[in-house]
Every structure is written in C-alpha cells, then in structure tokens.
C-alpha cells in the first residue's frame, strides 16, 4: 500500500456574462476571423463587479466538495492558485475558506500565473503525503479581465475569467491510483516576456498584462513538450498509455503543436479554449471538471495535466483517476 493524493471530486464556476468575439470586435479593433484563426478562441466569460476570484473559487470549491461527498469541515488544506487575488492580502484562499464556512485549516495562495494550478497541485500532493491534511481543496481562480489593457488588442482578446477546483484526498492505495508524478520548472530570466506592469512594491498600482506573444508561443511549445516527456518518463509510461491530456488552454495552436511533438492524438486532448479563452490558473481545473462531468474522463483513466505561464513557469502532472 502507498499513501497517495487521490482525485476525489472536481468543480468549476464561470461568470454570468459570456462575450463572443463579434461582441468584442464592437469595442476593440479586431475580428472574429483573426481571433479564431490565431488562437481558436470564440467566447470568454467576463466577471461582473460582484464576481471575484474568491467568489468564483468558492463556487467551484462547493461543486468539488459535493462531487467528493465531503463537507467544508472535512478540508484541512485550501490552496488557491491565482495571479488576480481579491486583495494584495489576505490570501484569496482565506476568503474562500470564509465563504465556504470551513473551520480552522491551512489556507494560502500560490502565484505562478498560468501554471499556478500545477504548482498548487504539486504542493498539495506533497503536503497530503506527509500528513499535513487528510483532504485538500486545490483551486485555480482568476479574474484576468481586471488586469487587461482593453486598448491592447494583442492581449485583451486572449483571456477570460473563471475558476476550477479539485478535492484531493490522502488514501492508502494499491497499484498506481492517484497523483503519480509532478514536475515544475521556472526560468526567471524570461520574466519580461509576459508580465503585469504594476504591483504593490513597484508602482503601487495593479497594472496591466504585457506580452511578447511570438516569444511566449515559441517557449510554450518547447517547454510543454519537454516537461510532458519528463513526467511520463518518471512514471515509466508512453504517450500511447495516456487516456486524456488536459492542457492549459492558452491557444489552440500551442496545444496542437505540443500534442503533435509528442505524437499524441488530438482526440485525447480536452479543449475548452474555444469557450473560455485563457483563464490562466483556472484553465486546467476548469477543463478537467468539464471532461469529468461529461463522462470523458472516467475512474481508472491515466490523465496528464500541463501548463506554462509568466515567469516563465511551467509544469506537468500525471494521475490515475
Ligand atoms: N486582432 C486583429 N489583429 C491583431 C490582433 C487582434 N486582436 N492582435 C494583433 N494583431 C495584428 C498585429 O498588430 C499584427 O499586425 P501587423 O502585421 O500589421 O503589425 C498582426 O496581427 C500579427 O501580430 P503578431 O503578434 O505577430 O501575431 P501572431 O501570429 O504572433 O499571433 C498571438 C499573436 C495570438 C498572441 C500569438 O503570438 C500567441 O498565441 N502567442 C502565445 C501567447 C499566449 O498564448 N499567451 C497566453 C499566456 S502564456 C501561456 O498561457 C502559454
């Protein structure tokens, strides 16, 4: 028997308002054709003033708890991956804890932008396996619309808001169930290729997203293919063993190019970028939840998660559901 972090439930939440490319084109100098051809994005959800990273995160967490058959009081660890917290502090995880009515537990945020969920998952996996908690909520939640420069058409069309959550439970398992491997990377020398031009310790403002799109694209394909290869090698499995890949949903061309590089069949890849755009740390758990709820991902499936984001940071995880 081995103590592993096992996926017990998933959930997600999207803001009420959905915006199509055509609607966006009435406000920004762009077109549905350009956005679809370059990115695969058709819609994104944009948070209303009463919808925040914490409220969306809590809504996703409630669904994940229900799916796991657990109560908020059962949770010993809450990690929120986000680059758009409600406040500079306290951590959005403590706000989620309050919204859920969860009693005293461990709660903190992880900041690794689009790969934040992979970082949070890896931290939760380690903490569960060393006995810090029995059940953990790992949430990716973002309101990127609040840090977009709506005058910059090269970035504002790419992102959306939303949240995804998973419950992980520490269980003694036989065989290869649960999280089998995680791998994380960062290369801070590229921090000016994708960043926000403000912050509490520099400008004292929130700032806006800035990006060198072509460079990000190039690094994303190379780094994602490489980290996927690393985690698969660690568990001793081949691309043909993978049932589902749940990639970060930044751009359909990045997802297609990465899958091709690894010889992964496109019909094994969960795609939501067309419906949600890039929801940063929320994109992987959001896509995971959709594929679990629509019956594609089933108990026993081998699932691979991957993401890359600002920093650069990137990572991957392999789990048996
Ligand atoms: N609508 C219409 N035209 C546009 C738009 C827009 N929204 N944005 C840029 N253009 C124009 C540019 O002005 C440029 O025009 P010009 O040739 O007259 O100067 C032209 O389109 C080409 O611009 P490029 O930036 O070179 O376009 P590219 O083919 O590189 O596509 C894109 C841009 C989609 C951003 C691409 O570089 C990309 O996907 N990069 C990855 C970025 C990404 O996904 N970031 C997300 C966060 S990181 C991550 O999650 C991995």
Query: CATH top level of the largest domain?
Result: Alpha Beta
Can you tell me the residue ranges where pLDDT is under 50 for at least 5 consecutive residues? none
Q: What's the number of structural domains?
A: 2
CATH architecture of the largest domain: 3-Layer(aba) Sandwich
Estimated radius of gyration: 18 Å
C-alpha termini separation: 17 Å
H/E element order: EEHHEHEHEHEHEEEEHEHHHEE
Average pLDDT works out at 97
Q: Class by helix and strand content? A: alpha/beta
Which fold name corresponds to the CATH topology of the largest domain?
Peroxisomal Thiolase, Chain A, domain 1
What is the number of beta strands?
A: 13
Continuous helix count: 10
- Describe the strand arrangement of the main beta sheet, using strand numbers: 1-7-6-4-5
What is the percent of helical residues? 25-40%
CATH superfamily of the largest domain: Thiolase/Chalcone synthase
Write a short abstract of this structure.
The protein has 10 helices and 13 strands. The strands form 4 sheets. It has a 5-stranded mixed beta sheet, sandwiched between helices.
